[in-house]
Amino acid sequence: NSYLNPIYTFENFIPCENTNFAYNAAKAIAMNPGINYNPCLIYGGVGLGKTHLLQSVGNYIEKENPKKKVIYVTAETFTNDFINSLQQKNASSFRIKYRKADVLLIDDIHFLQEKISTQEELFHTFNDLYEANKQIIFTCDRPISELKGFTDRLKSRFTRGLNLNLTAPDYETRVAILKKKCEAQNVRIFDSVISYMAENIKTNVRDLEGSLTTLIAYSKLIKTNITLEIAQEQLKNLISAPMASEQDISISTIVKEVASYYNVEISEIKGKKRTAIIKDARNLAIYLTRKITQYSTTEIGNYFDRDHSTITHSIDKVDQERKQNSDIAAALDSLENTIKSKSK
Ligand code: ADP
Ligand code: MG
């Protein structure tokens, strides 16, 4: 028994542009475990699909390669197993269990914080499996560099191989995920409701799923289709408060103005290009969004498809420039006024 949940498969994981690499790498591992990307670390915030992707690897191997022994555990189970084995003076059975794995999948290793003897044990398990070319994959809710209460030598094992980052899905992917979940449950939901949900629930896939579950349950209860009004009413507590009412300025208005000011395309600001002018325009759009809307840096990051630290960095950079250069300060003020007047 590998403790895998068969619902987690590659087929029903929908990658977006940002997570495509992680998705394809996980698939490559599943096809050739222990060969190329060993060990592998999948990290990212809560509800972004770490467990789903990890178990997809396990389920794929169990199906295509049933001779391989797959073990999936959470770090919590690993810890409890280890403690039990000590209490029952049966450390060898613990070792045998984990070291006979061809593929060891350990979920949520941040749980091992400050658990130094379990970390020791994992360190030895890791070394044995690694030497024998057995595949090891970990997940963690943050980059390893941000883990506290871990031995350095274990941290260095976690990051030795391939590191994959999962980030929040973009709008189109949120729509695709919602549609796929509706299809899987054989329910139909109006496109207007799907768009409303995808526009407003940007945090993670778990929240997206939770909202859908709420609506489907409600729809069954009242035996009617979900209209946009019903969705708005039912989800109002789940959807984070919109921006302050008097300044209802959308990010797209800001991006549009900044793009025309710099004479670049809107798509370039949200895109990946790193030429000086586009980078300047992007930083400015991020800075102005933070200054004149109520969006959090995380929400801004979701919009611009960048992580939280990149957003903070852009804001700090423009802030610095503004202080050092009065021309820039004047240009920023004028842009801000334009945006505000166009939003009235
Ligand atoms: P994590 O382990 O990162 O907290 P999970 O893997 O438990 O997140 O994902 C939360 C829920 O969202 C699960 O039901 C999972 O199937 C679903 N999910 C996450 N990412 C995706 C995705 N890209 N496509 C489809 N479903 C997803
Ligand atoms: Mg998880």
TrEMBL record:
The keyword ATP-binding applies. It comes from Bullifex porci. The keyword NADP does not apply. Residues 220-344 are annotated as: Domain IV, binds dsDNA. Oligomerizes as a right-handed, spiral filament on DNA at oriC. It is found in: Cytoplasm. It comes from the Bacteria. This is Chromosomal replication initiator protein DnaA. Residues 250-318 form the Chromosomal replication initiator DnaA C-terminal domain. Plays an essential role in the initiation and regulation of chromosomal replication. ATP-DnaA binds to the origin of replication (oriC) to initiate formation of the DNA replication initiation complex once per cell cycle. Binds the DnaA box (a 9 base pair repeat at the origin) and separates the double-stranded (ds)DNA. Forms a right-handed helical filament on oriC DNA; dsDNA binds to the exterior of the filament while single-stranded (ss)DNA is stabiized in the filament's interior. Residues 3-219 are annotated as: Domain III, AAA+ region. Domain I is involved in oligomerization and binding regulators, domain II is flexibile and of varying length in different bacteria, domain III forms the AAA+ region, while domain IV binds dsDNA. Residues 36-168 form the AAA+ ATPase domain. Belongs to the DnaA family. Its main location: cytoplasm. ATP binds at residues 47, 49-51. GO terms for biological process: DNA replication initiation; regulation of DNA replication. Keywords: ATP-binding, Cytoplasm, DNA replication, DNA-binding, Lipid-binding, Nucleotide-binding.
